Amino acid sequence: CLLSRGLGDVYKRQIILRGYLDIKERRKQTIMNNIDDLVEIYECPLCGGAGILEEDCGSSYYVTCLECGCHSVNIDFKSDDDRLDAAKRTADLWNCGKVISMSPGE
User: Fold this and answer.
1) Phi then psi dihedrals of residue 37, to 5 deg
2) Which member of 3, 72, 74, 94 has the lowest number of beta carbons within 10 Å of its beta carbon?
3) Are 66 and 52 in contact (CB under 8 A)?
4) Residue 81 banded pLDDT, cuts 50, 70, 90
5) Rounded distance, CA 68 to CA 47, Å?
6) Distance, CA of 22 to CA of 68 (rounded, Å)
7) For residue 53, which of 27, 26, 92, 101 has the smallest C-alpha distance?
């Protein structure tokens, strides 16, 4: 029957799409779980304290110092595919000394 054949094609496409989405979701989870292992954060360029990569509202990353409170700029990402690149760009800025200090007069 032509109708059942057409529905079979739709069903096959749904299975393929579901498999693709599952792979994409697993890739996202892997990146999110391993982002700290994939991005190197140096010590604070101002005080030598520990820097930590933070995610802000699920749409950007910044690095902050746990000692003096200075931080990098926020680097936005629009999709999960851009997440790792944003984290690396944020770390690169921090690691080369581009930070915002919370000290008066700076």
Assistant:
1) -75, -25
2) 3
3) yes
4) confident
5) 7
6) 42
7) 92
Other beta carbons within 10 Å of 63? 26
Q: Looking at residue 13, what is its pLDDT? A: 52
Q: Edge-to-edge strand order for the sheet containing 75-76?
A: 51-56, 60-65, 75-76
**Above pLDDT 70, what percent of the chain?**
65
Give DSSP secondary structure letters for 44-83.
PTTT-PPEEEEEETTTEEEEEETTT--B---EE-SSHHHH
Place of tokens 């690095």: 63
Instruction: Say which range, 11-25, 39-53, 58-72, 77-91, has the weakest mean pLDDT.
Output: 11-25
Are 70 and 44 contacting, i.e. CB atoms less than 8 angstroms apart?
A: yes
